[in-house]
What we know:
43% of the residues lie in helices and 17% in strands. It has helices at 7-31, 52-55, 71-84, 87-90, 102-108, 130-143, 166-175, 185-194; strands at residues 39-44, 61-68, 93-97, 116-121, 144-152. The model has no long low-confidence stretch (mean pLDDT 86).
Amino acid sequence: xxxxxxxxxxxxxxxxxxxxxxxxxxxxxxxxxxxxxxxxxxxxxxxxxxxxxxxxxxxxxxxxxxxxxxxxxxxxxxxxxxxxxxxxxxxxxxxxxxxxxxxxxxxxxxxxxxxxxxxxxxxxxxxxxxxxxxxxxxxxxxxxxxxxxxxxxxxxxxxxxxxxxxxxxxxxxxxxxxxxxxxxxxxxxxxxxxxxxxxxxxxxxx
Length: 206
């Protein structure tokens, strides 16, 4: 989170998360009109809680486990939740610092649910190398309850400036920035179906 953001811009940043969740849940309901958001929810790569805090306000949600690999981001998420949510909704929000093995991280904390009715991830997987993306896709399927749903935002296109070339790496070291990775649609679908998940593609051009 850019600490230079003004108060208004920060409010707009969080409010836009509500719009994102509305669109994403709409895609899931389009694929299955009988589905409703309920039970245990995971927001993977939650960052500063922009999306997870919105999910925690949904009526039938019991818990929202917000997973990230950044201690800094999770601390910011907890601050936001305490300010933005009612005490009842804030109690549903559970931050989880994850290692690359998500299942192991879930098992390490007895307060965290093991099984989920909905797994959500947006603008997160592209920051990981493709083999790690595959591992997480498999583990998302593993933690879903029967009938559970996922919304997975996965980049399918090659970055215009590949993250693996020397010039780009030098730029990241000198100027900061994030490397971007992708996987093919075929690999993503094969990974999920191999793990027992049915897949509905919503191609948004990325």
